Each structure stands twice: as C-alpha cells, then as structure tokens.
Write the structure tokens for this entry.
Amino acid sequence: MNRLDLQEKPQKSEPKDIPVETFLIKFLEELVLERTLQENDKR
Amino acid sequence: MIKDKKDDSPIYRLLVIQTESLERQFQSLMALSAARRLYPQLEIYFLTDRDIAEPVRSVSWIKQVYEIDSKKLIKPIILGHLKPNQVIGELSKELKPVINTAWDFIFNWSYSKSSSYLAALIPALVKSGYTRSSDDKILMNDDWSQYFFSVIQNNYSQNIHAIDILTTQLLTTLQIYIGESKKCENESVTSKMFFDKIELDCPIVLWERTRHWVGVQYDHFSEKFEFKNFIETLLLRNPDCSIILFGNDKYKSEVEKMLNESLFDSSRVISEVGPLRFSRWASIIGECSAIITSDPKTSQLASLLGTRVYYFASRGDDIFRSAPYGNGHVLVKGIKENKNSPEMLAQDVYEIWSYYSKRGFFKNESCLEVLQSKIRPLDEGGGVVYKEITEGVLDFENWFSLVLGYVVRKWYCGWVPALGQELHRNQVDLKLIQEVRKLKEATSAFIKITENSIKILEKLKEKSSKLPSESIMLLEDRYEIVSLNEQLQESYLLIERLGGVQKPFNVLSDLLKGMMHNLKSDQISEMSHEALRNFQKLKEAGEMIEDWVEYTLWLGKPQIISSSVSIP
C-alpha cells in the first residue's frame, strides 16, 4: 500500500506568526478537557 | 536535513508526536519499524507523555525520547490552584529542546485537538497529522489525516487497520521527499527482541521454557465465562501446556482465591495478576506461545513481539484500531452479548484456542464470530484482513466497508486490486442484494450531482483566472461568481441530503468537508482548481460504488449449472 501519486506533494509547512503563548495555553486547555473526558469514560 | 559525518550522506530527522495511549504507541512503533528498514538514513525521535514513555525508551533505534509530564502540568489546573497561563513556563521548558531542533518530518500520530497545537509550535519542513494555522484553524496536510478526521474519528464503519494507515502515510511521505526506498525482501518488522534495551524479566524459569506457555489476561471479559473450567480443560487436555495469568490489580485477590480453591498443578499455573513493570509485561508476552486477551494494549504489544493473539473484542470495540496485527491472529466477537451459560462459553473459548493452535475440534455452540488475521498480498489490496473460518454472508455495513476501503486506496495509493478479489458469491444473500439495489439509484444521483458541481467549478475557475484582480472587479463579474458559489453550496446540500437517505453518502459528504476545509490556497482561481480536483475524486468514488453495485447484483443472480453436473 505504498504507491504514490507524485502529483500530490504536500506543501512545506513551517510555523509563521504562530502565537506561541496562546497555543501553549490552548494546548493545556484542550489537554485538561481530553483527560477529563477520558477519566469520565473509564468510570 | 543534516549530513553524516562519516560519508557526507544526508540524514533526515523525523519526529513522531504520540501522547495518547500505549496501544497507539505500539502501533506507531510497528509503522516506524517498517520505515527504518526501508530508509536507513532516518533518525527517529519521539515526543510522548511521561506516563507512557517506557516502551519507546526501550527501543534502541529511537534516537531520543522527549517527554511531557502532562499529569504534573494539568493537575494544578484541574484542582483550580493555577490557571493555564501560569503553567506555560514549565511546559516551555519541557518543549524547548524539541522546538529548537530543525526537523525534516513531523508525524503527529496523536490525532487529538491538543496535539495539533504541539505540532503547530514545532518547526518542520513536512508535517503530517493534525496541526494548526496561525489563525487557530485545525489543518490536515495529507490525505490519510483527512481520512482519520472524517471517517475514523466520526466512527464510520471502515476496514483499514490503524497500522496500515500509519505505515502508508509514513512511507508515502518518505517516498515523495526522500525518494525510492532500499529493497527489503520479506524482512519481518516484529521480533521477540523488539524492545532491545530492556533486561528480560520473566517469571518463567529457564528449564520450564520448553513448555508451551499460554498467557491469559484476567479481565472484564473473563467474568463472562467460567474461567476456572477453561483453565482446567486446557491443562487437562494439553499436558505440554502451562498457563501464566496476568491482569489488573483489582482482580488479584479474586484470582488468588480461585487458584487456592482449585487443584491445579501449581508448577503449571503462574499468577502475575497485579501491577507489572513494562519490562516484565513485555518479557511475559514475548515468552508465551499465545496470548488470550480483550485488552487492546496487550493485543498491540503481542503483535509487535510476534506472539499469536486470541483477541476477544468488546462491544463497540473498533477492531481496526484494537485487534492484533499480522498473520494468524484470532479475533473473536460477540462474547459479551452472548446469552449462553458461562460453562458453555468456557468450552467454546477453549475450543477456539484448541482449533487454531492444535487443529482441534470446534463446535461453536455459542455462535461466536471467529475470524483470523491475514496480511494480504499487494495484488489483493495489501494490509491486514480478518476472515471467518467459513466466509459468511456480508451485511450491508460490512459490504460498504469493503467499498470504502477500495475507494480510499484508489484515491490515496493510486491502485486497487481487481474488482471481485474482495467479494465472493457466498458472501451475498437476498437481504444484501435488496440493500444494494436501493443504493443503485442514489449512486446515479450522486454522480449527477458531482458532474454538475464539476461544471460549476470549471466555470468558476475559468471566470476567476481571467480576472485582473480578485479584490477589484466589475459588478457583473462579482454577481456571476456569487451565483456560481451559491450553486455550489446547493450541491453540497444535495450531497448532505443524499447522506440522510443513504448512509454511505454521509461518509463521502464528511470526507468532502474534510477536503474542502483543507484547501491550501486563498485565491479564488486556485481554490476552485483544488475544489475541482476534490469533486473529481468524489465523482470517481461514485463510479467505483456503481461498479461495486453492478458486480454485487451480478453475483446475486442465479447461475446456470452445466448439464453434466448431477444434482443429488
């Protein structure tokens, strides 16, 4: 399953103007949400 | 890309982000193991959660493991002692070495919203999996990530194993950016020594290792059948076999009580039920000739170590994310829902084990669904499949899983096995034929909608490419563009409505949303070009569904029997 369509090259991506502080906060907020949901599912 | 100090050859740095769970960790390692053999110029790094880091720390070819202590980070936030902005200093310190490294590839295999922010923060030339744009939009740069987002995370029935998806995504990307891989003939990616940095820590003493040890995980599924009967039967009928029990700490006293009350030969039954260090867990599973479990983590670990797994799927279990991967594993469905007596189920569980390990007798009185895994040759579609002992009739949902697998392999891999390789006459019955017939009309409508959308997009592309500017234009040009856009929106709605009548088109509608969400350009002419390609893909999907419908209906037709065949 490793044939290619060479026309489909994905674009190069580098963080440009990424709001670092905001993304760190969002990461933590989402993580809290995901872990809380996981804990609830386990129960 | 950096250069090798010895011979100046290029070395590519690849970072995998996997912060979710142990079973995903094992799946990632399986995919990476295939890639490192094909691309020895890769340096593989891992970013993971400290709680699940031990397996990746135990593999010598992982160059470095970066860890986030998420429990420590989020605990004060959950308790309300700190706000997220008061914790980011600590988080930045943990992420600093990862962010300061020049990565060639990032594969975010966590497939979670939170991890998309991590992927966005780390610079790399190529990113696969979820990431974010600077304006906080979730992005998926490659087809398989869009498939994960639109199909797997929406819980649509599909038949491509997570390991096949990760492996194909990885190898496709590497082939595009690095080039053809080195030839690697039939080299196995599994090994008893997969975790080559751990010290073996097995409770089975050396002189007992010649026996066949069967590892049985005592778990919630064991409560459903008469576990004691199962062990007694296995020991009694197989003098060459011994059993090692393991499982969650909460079952420890229950298992000890059972062992104390039984008359098992204590040299043939060992209990390791209770908390296990990773090295001991992996050593036990590596030492056993077979593992009986309903735990996806154990199933994936045993797959890596090349130990045969008898996996008892729970209700609602997505088997293409939890069932064992490789040749010859056994997958059993329906034990939880079964209403037969625990004694009869224990007999069936024993017979399943006996049938596949020793070609014993299997009556299957509980009518469990028993399947065996097989890695298909490439000309039959590749990847792992699960087949019943006797191929049973397909229901419509499973039939469409086959069709969807066929469509996405054609889209993303560019080739598919010949139609008919995956569907046989004995899998088709009247009920399936009736369902497929209903789909026939909807498929024609779907193709017409996509054809119409393609025409609209061609007009939009032509119109927009002739505009001297996309921000300043004649009023009549603007009206025409708005009108074409409205017609396109109607097509979207029609596809969505079709999904309401025929479920298969819901999947295609969600896939379309994923594709359109990830258009790379912000210019109308380029966007309409990308959208045009997406609708062409949808049309192609409609035509493939049509082929499957025709083929299935043909299989359902009565066949003429040669006059030389005598009918008893």
User: Anything to note?
Assistant: The longest helix of chain A spans residues 20-42. Residues 21 and 27 of chain A are 10 Å apart (CA to CA).
